[in-house]
Amino acid sequence: MKHLPSGNDGFFSVSVYFLLIYLIGVYYHYFNRFQLVLDIRMNLIEIYISRIYQIIN
Question: Hey, where are the domains in the chain?
Answer without folding.
Answer: 27-56
